[in-house]
TrEMBL record:
GO terms for cellular component: cytoplasm. PANTHER family: MTH938 DOMAIN-CONTAINING PROTEIN. Pfam families: DUF498. It comes from Thiohalorhabdus denitrificans. The lineage of its organism: Bacteria, Pseudomonadati, Pseudomonadota, Gammaproteobacteria, Thiohalorhabdales. InterPro entries: MTH938-like_sf (IPR036748), NDUFAF3/AAMDC (IPR007523). This is Uncharacterized protein.
Length: 114
């Protein structure tokens, strides 16, 4: 599912606008997506991703990149065979859309604001 547009605090996916953080999984868009600690990504925040592991998880850390992705989270993903790709959300959206043309199973976790 490609992203049509992204700007600070707002993302459009398949023509629908979301103003809360989103998870894009094989079964669709999940929003709002909440984390235990707002600006830190814990493995527990990715239960839906870990339950049905994609090959690649694109992680958007916010417009300014303020969401931290600790090593323990990256390790939990790699241990499940998931390749994490972490970037500010603007670049993460570009990467996600680029990857959509590949045959790999792709998921995304996108923080929309700071």
């Amino acid at each position: 599912m490609a992203v049509d547009d992204y700007a600070f605090g707002r993302i459009t996916i398949a023509g629908r606008v979301y103003t809360k953080d989103v998870l894009l999984l094989s079964d669709g868009v999940h929003s709002p997506w909440w984390r235990k600690e707002g600006h830190s990504l814990d493995p527990g925040d990715l239960e839906g991703v870990l339950a049905d592991p994609p090959e690649v998880l694109v992680i958007g850390t916010g417009y300014y990149g303020n969401m931290d992705v600790p090593e323990k989270t990256l390790k939990a993903l790699r241990d499940k065979g998931i390749e994490p790709r972490v970037a500010r959300t603007t670049q993460a959206v570009e990467e996600l859309n680029r990857l959509m043309g590949d045959s790999a199973r792709i998921a995304a976790a996108l923080h929309l604001t700071c």
